[in-house]
């Protein structure tokens, strides 16, 4: 299902908010989208951009991924895990919607790129999926925020020792790139998963939902055929100062010298829709955190019976997780904690609970901690561990991996205890209409 198909489905289901009042890309659009956070919002009139529409929030709720993939919310983690385990090579088309309009002469100022916050270094693209090819491992799909510099150039935040950066180290000169804006929810999820080198994220996307490809016009890269906008170009060896910009933790990331991308060609669909993703918002958080749930799920399943895993929004959808297990032995809680940290290396704190606890309800997780956890018995602390560069409280030394202390809490029923002591009493259900009448 393309982004455009999802918008139509959301509208049909009453899930789409439409804004017809003209809005500015300078702060206003981001402010309105933030005020409606959690909703899918279509902006139909953009000041200075009469031919464009802007969508915000298609990835802001698990229900939207459920709609787009045709999978119940509670089965999303297993669906992602299966696609990661069994990718499917997508077909390659000769013609595609993303190439309905071809622009050899262009100006990046003609795209409705947002200025999100007064603190930002400038106008940023934050929703784009970047496709490159590693000479050794093949296709790679990732995210890189893009600071518009002029009519043809961006400065891209490219994290060291990750896929795009390592591919750059393997080639002489520029690295061809395709920047995709307005992709399907399946493509977004696959790009966020970060599988091992050699696992093709576009094949993972096709395993999640049909994702045919088409070859770019100015290079040999392949992109999702139903993408709204494709910027074809090259990552150069030149650099430019990039940042500040708000990151996942809703704190401002620092300034750095980063690679410059030069754009050679733009293609897009007719009546294009630009996806505006709010940095630090729900879309950013879900796309970062949710794709890590299947890797946690898979690792915990190696040591215990894992029945669920969720990255929580309170932990910036990156640093905290709740894992649900069907406990089979006294050490299952500890084993699940250690496995969760292996499943997501940036994880900082994890709670392990039993099957009767709703892992999507923070109050239930806290209840399990209150009634089943003892700090002197069930708390596990791991000092001086590799951590996340996004954690402002961690230890960050230039050129080295960030360090942090990690904590796991086993909030499962103590092994050997009487389970009846730990089970909630339940009232019976009634038909309130029989009692309230017309009141």
Please explain how this structure is put together.
- This protein has 439 residues and is α+β, with helices and mostly antiparallel strands.
- It has a domain at 287-415: UbiD C-terminal domain-like, CATH 3.40.1670.10.
- It has helices at residues 3-12, 28-35, 62-69, 76-85, 163-169, 185-193, 201-208, 282-289, 293-301, 332-343, 362-372, 375-378, 433-436, and strands at residues 16-19, 40-43, 53-56, 92-93, 101-103, 124-125, 129-134, 138-143, 146-148, 153-156, 175-181, 213-215, 222-224, 229-242, 245-246, 252-253, 256-268, 273-275, 305-311, 320-326, 349-353, 379-386, 403-410.
- Strands 5, 6, 7, 8, 9, 10, 11, 14 and 17 form a 9-stranded antiparallel β-sheet that branches. A 5-stranded mixed β-sheet has the order 19-20-21-23-22, with helices on both faces. Strands 1-2-3-18 form a 4-stranded mixed β-sheet, with helices on one face.
- The protein starts with a helix and ends with a helix.
- The model has no long low-confidence stretch (mean pLDDT 94).
Question: What characterizes the major β-sheet?
Answer: 9 strands, antiparallel
The total of helices stands at 13
Mean pLDDT: 94
Q: What is the CATH architecture assignment of the domain at 287-415?
A: 3-Layer(aba) Sandwich
C-alpha termini separation: 44 Å
Q: What would CATH call the class of the domain at 287-415?
A: Alpha Beta
State the CATH superfamily name of the domain at 287-415: UbiD C-terminal domain-like
Give the radius of gyration.
23 Å
What is the CATH topology assignment of the domain at 287-415?
Answer: UbiD C-terminal domain-like
Shape: globular
Unreliable segments of 5+ consecutive residues: none
């Amino acid at each position: 299902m393309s982004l455009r198909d999802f918008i139509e489905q959301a509208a049909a289901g009453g899930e789409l908010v439409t804004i017809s009042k003209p809005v500015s890309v300078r702060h206003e659009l981001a402010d309105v989208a933030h005020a409606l956070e959690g909703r899918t919002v279509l902006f139909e009139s953009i000041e200075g951009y009469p031919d464009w529409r802007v969508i915000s929030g298609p990835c802001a709720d698990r229900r939207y991924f459920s709609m787009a993939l045709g999978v119940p919310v509670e089965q999303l983690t297993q669906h992602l895990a299966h696609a990661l385990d069994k990718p499917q090579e997508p077909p390659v088309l000769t013609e595609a919607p993303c190439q309905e309009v071809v622009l050899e002469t262009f100006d990046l100022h003609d795209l409705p790129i947002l200025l999100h916050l007064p603190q930002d270094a400038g106008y940023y693209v934050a929703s784009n999926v970047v496709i490159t090819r590693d000479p050794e491992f093949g296709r790679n799909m990732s995210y890189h925020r893009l600071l518009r510099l002029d009519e043809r150039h961006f400065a891209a935040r490219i994290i060291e020792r990750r896929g795009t950066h390592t591919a750059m180290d393997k080639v002489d000169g520029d690295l061809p790139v395709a920047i995709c804006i307005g992709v399907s929810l399946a493509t977004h999820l696959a790009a966020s998963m970060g599988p091992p080198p050699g696992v093709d994220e576009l094949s993972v996307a096709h395993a999640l939902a049909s994702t045919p490809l088409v070859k770019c016009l100015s290079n040999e890269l392949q992109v999702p055929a139903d993408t709204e906008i494709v910027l074809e170009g090259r990552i150069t060896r030149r650099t430019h100062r990039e940042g500040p910009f708000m990151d996942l933790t809703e704190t401002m990331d620092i300034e750095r010298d980063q690679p410059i991308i030069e754009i050679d060609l733009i293609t897009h669909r007719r009546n294009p829709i630009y996806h505006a993703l709010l940095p630090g918002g729900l879309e950013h958080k879900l796309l970062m955190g949710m794709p890590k749930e299947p890797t946690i799920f898979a690792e915990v399943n190696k040591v215990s019976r894992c029945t669920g895993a969720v990255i929580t929004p309170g932990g910036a959808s990156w640093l905290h997780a709740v894992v649900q297990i069907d406990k089979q032995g006294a050490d299952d809680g500890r084993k699940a904690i250690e496995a969760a940290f292996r499943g997501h290396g940036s994880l900082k704190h994890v709670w392990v609970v039993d099957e009767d606890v709703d892992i999507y309800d923070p109050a239930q997780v806290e209840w399990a901690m209150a009634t089943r956890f003892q700090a002197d018995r069930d708390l596990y602390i791991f000092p001086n561990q590799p951590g996340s560069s996004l954690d402002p409280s961690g230890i960050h030394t230039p050129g080295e991996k960030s360090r942090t202390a990690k904590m796991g809490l086993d909030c499962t029923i103590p092994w050997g205890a009487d389970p009846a002591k730990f089970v909630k009493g339940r009232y019976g259900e009634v038909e309130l209409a029989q009692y309230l009448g017309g009141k």
